[in-house]
Description:
It contains 2 helices and 18 strands. The chain is mainly beta. Strands 1, 2, 3, 11, 12, 14, 15, 16, 17 and 18 form a 10-stranded antiparallel sheet that branches. A hairpin with an 8-residue loop joins strand 7 and strand 8.
Amino acid sequence: MSPSGKYFIFSGNAVGAAAQFHKLDQLQNLNHVIPTLGASALPGTGGLSKGHAANYCYAVDQPRKRTLLAVRRIDTKAEGLTLADRWETDVEAEIEAVDVLEKLEIGLVKLHFNSSRKMDSENCEATISTKGSRIEGLRMGSVEAKIILDEEPLQYTSSKENLADYYRKQSSGWRSANARRFGTLPDAAAVREVNGTVKFSLVREIQLIGKQDPEHEVRVQADGYTIKWDGFGRIILGEVFVKCCDRRVTMVRLHMGSDGGGSGSVGDGSSNGQTGTN
């Protein structure tokens, strides 16, 4: 508790991987729900929560024998600290060797961000920092995607207004080059807001390396952070959602179709918090 009598209600979580499948080959309306793997969640009083999973495999026999999701290792952490002059929420996830539908391979996903809020602050804004996030070894058949991240905007997600102000203060050249990451027009000075939420991506560039299969082409979509892989679906990378003073980061989001339909995510975390008075 702060000297003023205020206390902090912590909110923070991290998830390693999760997925659900509603279609496999010609079978429709399925309900293969893979349990959330390596989840960490803070109680309102803060503290430390850790999640771990290792050598996980979810396989089916019908309509044919196949592994829907396999993960070698997941470690997550959500920590809420009350310090001398501030409250801190730390969110971290590390996921190693992911295989989806025996097609998509992801070598490593790392996510980290820290939210620090001064006790004497009169609003919900915090200082956001990161030790670095990564997506490595993303392979789609013989094509590998090199993901280049730019995490600077993440440091301005203390609030939706703070992020909008950051975007507005950038040069016109910067906004033109990064507008698609924010889902807005190249000549716009304001970020796009939908239902009170601002969305952008940490991805600055995706480079595709390797020989393409003409029947299962891999291509980067117009937004610059979504990969469309024929025969698999869409792979959305580095999404950040900011609403009020809440931020959520999803490093890999899957929208699957073709012979395996469903959704999933790898490396997901969020943080927020509010003060109370005794």
